[in-house]
Specification:
single chain; about 20% helix; alpha+beta; six-stranded antiparallel β-sheet; Thiol Ester Dehydrase, Chain A
């Protein structure tokens, strides 16, 4: 998936299904969360040299385009679409094994100071790391 620098494949398990026979809507969010954390690790956002500053999920939206069924495999990708002063917007996609877009979403991540309960600006180093995968 060109344009998505962080990708991960997942196996659809029988337990991912809901009573209607397709993958439950919450599973897509979990897959996106996992790939988002993969991104954080690549840019070392989770290893900031502070115990009081870290990323928080400020908003999340998702659109479901096509149901996913067992058995299948999915590929989930993420990228940064916009970098602000203390936040950035990520876009996510979920494709089934046939290469069909099944879900897309976006989220806003804010760098947050938990001790002072406020957002903090992204450092130049962090901005450069994010832009390197942009």
């Amino acid at each position: 998936m060109e344009g998505y620098p962080v990708l991960r494949d997942f196996v659809v398990h029988w337990g991912d299904m809901d009573a209607l026979g397709h993958v439950n809507n919450t599973r897509h969010l979990r897959w996106m969360e996992t790939v988002r954390v993969d991104f954080f690790q690549k840019v070392e956002l989770r290893t900031i040299k502070s115990e009081t500053i870290g990323p928080v999920l400020a908003s999340l939206s998702i659109d479901y385009h096509k149901p996913i069924f067992y058995p299948d495999n999915v590929t989930v990708g993420t990228r940064v679409a916009h970098i602000g002063n203390s936040s950035f917007r990520m876009e996510n996609v979920v494709y089934n094994g046939a290469g069909e877009l099944c879900a897309s979403g976006e989220c806003i991540i804010v760098l947050f100071d938990f001790e002072n309960s406020k957002s903090v600006p992204l450092s130049d180093e962090m901005r450069n790391a994010i832009e390197s995968l942009h």
